[in-house]
Design goal:
The complex is a heterodimer. Chain A is of the alpha+beta class. Chain A contains three helices and twelve strands, in the order H-E-E-E-E-E-E-E-E-E-H-E-E-E-H. In chain A, the strands form two sheets. In chain A, strands 1, 2, 3, 9, 10, 11 and 12 form a seven-stranded antiparallel sheet that branches. Chain A starts with a helix and ends with a helix. Chain B is mostly helical. Classes of the chains: A alpha+beta, B mainly alpha.
């Protein structure tokens, strides 16, 4: 093959290589700009990824719904209909296999089904919040300390939702972004 | 090696072993050879440098620089990627040396990884590791052919294996098999084929003769989902296939160091047969109803492939003399199906098979005057004896005698061969 043909193919390859991360960014930015913001109450724990760095894993309070259907498969894609309670935090209402026609909803994956209590456990796909490597563990500790304080504490994730897709924007402890909270504690 | 030879030339001329003319011809020959071959060491360091810089960038970005704005971080995500692309584009456009191509390709490979990783980090895109690696490999594979790069082909193979493990051995994926891994292998296969044809003696091709079978050995287990017992059969068949491939003259003519197929095939077969010489292995959970399953069909394909290689070797008259290793996969398949209803026969037969393989290997070692192969055969027998040491009700005296006999066997065979070798050398002189 001639060098110039190779070069044309190469141009095509670099365009695809640039397109993939750019598209990822565009999709996320779109949800952040035009999606609706929700607060998910959560508990952070700190693990790490070999390529992406340290993150805090978020255990959301809204992670179960009652269900009499027992045919759920592990890792199955489901749609969780959500609404807000009086304090403005998300509550999971029910789970469906098809996107609900009205109301807000988020995509999630089935964890397991508790057939004794008829409860379905699911996990949201936005359960990793990437943080500075020095702050991730401190964030977990800060959250734990905040929980044991006598005053009421709220740790929540701010998530933008659009057509079931969600982008995790930030995590807050008592309305302060978790990274700043950790810095203040120091 | 060459410089050593050149250094010795004056001495050879002085002692009139060769004439001065011949000495200068030899000198000329190596000089011209050196000028034509690209500097391999330079390529190795270039690639190693790119690899380290690329991995370093991934780690530095993984630190998560949260004092930067999202926009700044996004620019950083693209910076290494664009730099890598510029270097690769330059190498292609100017048709630079393979050193340039290998080094810039390696850098771009890791730059792509760091770019997707950083975007995922900025937007908290949750990572299933397998889909992250898959995107990465898919974005990089055309570079293997655009740059004709061996290093990228190897990185492709290594990361495809990583992908298969992430999908198949993960906690969440007990029932899924990484079928895409096979597609990933298929797209790298033409490069391997070219290396086989164009550079049969290159070190990097030898490395591929190890990495390809090794990757398959690592990942075959990911295709076992519900009928785990079939795994034994699948692996014995895979090792049988490797052994028979390793016996193809193209590979068999090379030293064992260059023939990963033969070494892995032989070791794998022996280890699995040693395992199946224990009775507990044959307590199967599977029966005739498990036969129409994914595992059964994979075993069937492997069996047919091994049979085709064996049959082809026969038709080409590559097989001279009887080598039990080449047929073990057929015998084991029969034992496996007997084992579904009866556990005694296959246990006894496996013991006999391992013993026969040990004896056979000793014989091959003796015929070839290869001490390594000879002692490998003795090791097989020793391993069998050690295994029986643990699970039989033989009296201590018999077990003790067995050990003493094998020990004496080690001494005797090595001694006899050493003596024969010495006589042969004497006759030659």
């Amino acid at each position: 093959m001639k060098a110039i043909h190779l070069f044309y193919i190469f141009i095509l390859v670099i365009l695809v290589q640039l397109y993939v991360p750019a598209r990822m960014i565009y999709d996320q930015e779109d949800i952040l700009k035009t999606g609706k913001a929700f607060k998910f109450k959560t508990q952070p724990v700190d693990p790490s990824d070999p390529f992406k760095g340290k993150y805090i894993y978020l255990n959301f309070e809204a992670s179960t719904v009652p269900s009499i259907d027992s045919t759920w498969m592990r890792q199955e894609l489901v749609y969780v209909a959500i609404s807000e309670d009086d304090a403005g935090f998300v509550v999971a209402k029910h789970v469906t296999r098809m996107p609900p026609e009205k109301g807000d909803f988020v995509k999630a994956k089935v964890g397991w089904y508790d057939s004794q209590q008829n409860i379905l456990n699911f996990s949201f796909p936005f359960n990793e919040f990437y943080m500075n490597e020095a702050k991730a563990y401190d964030a977990e500790v800060a959250h734990r300390n905040a929980q044991t304080d006598s005053t009421a504490n709220d740790t929540y994730a701010l998530v933008y939702v659009k057509n079931g897709d969600a982008v995790l924007s930030n995590v807050f402890i008592n309305e302060i972004p978790i990274a700043d909270y950790v810095q203040e504690e120091h | 090696m060459n410089s050593k030879l050149i250094n010795e030339l004056p001495e050879l001329v002085k002692n009139q072993v060769i004439s001065e003319d011949i000495a200068s011809i030899i000198q000329q020959y190596y000089k011209s050879k050196q000028e034509h071959s690209p500097n391999k060491l330079f390529t190795v360091f270039g690639v190693l440098g790119s690899l380290l810089v690329g991995l370093g960038i991934i780690l530095i970005l993984a630190h998560n620089w949260d004092e930067f704005l999202r926009v700044t971080k996004t620019v950083f995500a693209f910076l290494p990627l664009v730099i890598g692309q510029l270097f690769v584009g330059y190498s292609i456009f100017k048709n630079k040396s393979s050193t340039w191509k290998e080094a810039s390709g390696t850098f771009l490979f890791f730059a792509i990884g760091s770019s997707i990783a950083l975007v995922s980090q900025i937007y908290n895109i949750p990572g299933d590791l397998s889909s992250f690696i898959l995107t990465w490999i898919v974005l990089c594979w055309p570079l293997i052919y655009l740059l004709k790069s061996d290093v990228l082909a190897i990185l492709h193979l290594v990361f495809s294996t990583y992908y298969a493990c992430a999908v198949g051995y993960g906690f969440d994926s007990m029932e899924s098999s990484p079928w895409l891994y096979l597609v990933l292998l298929a797209i790298a296969l033409p490069h391997y084929w070219q290396a086989l044809k164009l550079r049969p003696n290159a070190n990097i091709t030898s490395l591929m003769h190890w990495l390809w079978p090794l990757s398959l050995v690592i990942t075959l287990g990911t295709f076992v989902s519900q009928h785990g017992d079939f795994g034994y059969l699948m692996y014995v068949l895979l090792f049988g296939l490797f052994y028979n491939i390793g016996k193809i003259p193209y590979l068999d003519h090379h030293s064992l160091r260059r023939n990963g197929y033969l070494v892995l095939g032989s070791l794998g077969t022996v280890i699995l047969l040693l395992l199946s010489s224990f009775k507990w292995l044959w307590d199967f959970d599977i029966d005739a109803s498990s036969i129409p399953s994914q595992e059964f069909y994979i075993a069937l394909i492997l069996f047919m492939a091994s049979l085709v290689v064996l049959g082809y070797s026969y038709s080409k008259q590559w097989i001279r003399g009887f080598n039990l290793f080449q047929y073990v996969f057929i015998l084991f398949t029969i034992l496996f199906f007997i084992g579904m209803t009866n556990s005694i026969i296959p246990t006894v037969m496996s013991n006999i098979l391992v013993f026969a393989l040990g004896v056979m290997t000793v014989k091959i070692g003796a015929d070839k005057f290869h001490f390594g192969i000879l002692n490998y055969g003795l090791l097989i027998i020793t391993a069998l004896v050690v295994c029986r040491f643990f699970d039989t009700d033989m009296s201590y005296i018999i077990r003790g005698l067995l050990f003493v006999m094998v020990g004496i066997g080690f001494f005797l065979t090595n001694y006899v061969m050493l003596k024969r070798q010495k006589t042969l050398i004497k006759i030659k002189n």
